[in-house]
Amino acid sequence: MLNSKAVLTSINDYYNELKSKMLTIKSHNRKILENIEGFIEIENEIGAKNFELAKLKYTGDTESAKKVQTEIDNLTLKLKDIIKSASLVKYNYECPICKDTGIVDGKRCKCYLKHISNYILKELGANRQQTCSFKSSKSCPSLKKHYEIAKSYAKTFPNTKVNNFVFMGNVGSGKTHLSKCILTELALKGFSTVFFSATELNNLFIKMHVGEADRVLSFEMLSECDLLVIDDLGTEPLYNNITVDYLLSVISTRIGLKKHFIITTNLTTDELYARYNERLLSRLSNKTETLFIPFNGEDLRRQ
Ligand SMILES: [Zn+2]
């Protein structure tokens, strides 16, 4: 079950494990430094000088304080040299943004949102093994322009010309592939990206609706990840008061937050209109926010 306690426990375990790894390396490095001749002495000397400096500042002896400050600076440089030349174990953060704490400026980091989405996708049984990249893609002449648009979108992200795309076209026209290429590229750059088929998303909506999935956490992940891809919109079953309402809520929130999304669909605008009513279409109708791109090329999968 997708309740917040299970999700948070699993994610916190992950961060705690990273933290303990980091602490082990820190204490290992500390031992190396302590064994270097002069290191502890210099460190102690800096401590004593700082105490002396505080006293001098208190008594207003600025001349002597200046002298002591220079001594402290020189000792600090010596210490830095020792640290530089020591063979310490380097710790590479999994996420340099939050330094593996999962929190930045009191908010959940992108990596945290990514963990939430991974957890939810795993619980939904979604298969996420296939990745696509611009480099390994076969170039199809009829989609040359599409690839150019997609590459420039990924390159300039998040300062893209338009924030959102609706890729429209028949099955096998390359919409899903192209959206996955963008997603892979952005994920490599460290953005939090979430890919849902419309059916998976609909299943999550139902779980959120009946309280089987944590609403707040799921909604946070769906609204705040850097890029959300909803694949094959129109193939999912429609549930009254759920499918359209939740979808509209996610889309509206993302547009409000200026967060990017890509929707792929086999439906035409008329069919989308008929299926989801004008509320969704009107949210997507602002051309400065959302670009509808037709895929009328030949079937890429037959080549
Ligand atoms: Zn992070």
Give me a quick take on this structure:
This protein is an alpha/beta fold and 303 residues long. It has helices at residues 4-34, 39-59, 62-85, 110-123, 144-156, 175-188, 198-210, 215-224, 243-256, 269-283, and strands at residues 103-104, 107-108, 164-169, 193-197, 227-233, 260-265, 290-295.
Record the SSE blueprint.
Layout: H1 4-34, H2 39-59, H3 62-85, E1 103-104, E2 107-108, H4 110-123, H5 144-156, E3 164-169, H6 175-188, E4 193-197, H7 198-210, H8 215-224, E5 227-233, H9 243-256, E6 260-265, H10 269-283, E7 290-295
Helix pairs in contact: 1-4, 2-3, 4-8, 5-6, 8-9, 9-10
Query: Largest sheet, described in full?
Result: 5 strands, parallel
Low-confidence stretches: 299-303
Given helix and strand content, the structural type is alpha/beta
For the CA atoms, what is the radius of gyration?
27 Å
Number of strands: 7
Name of the level-1 CATH class of the largest domain = Alpha Beta
Q: End-to-end distance, in Å?
A: 42 Å
Percent of residues in beta strands = 5-15%
Name the strands of the widest sheet in spatial order.
4-5-6-3-7
Bound ions, cofactors and other small molecules, one mention each: zinc ion
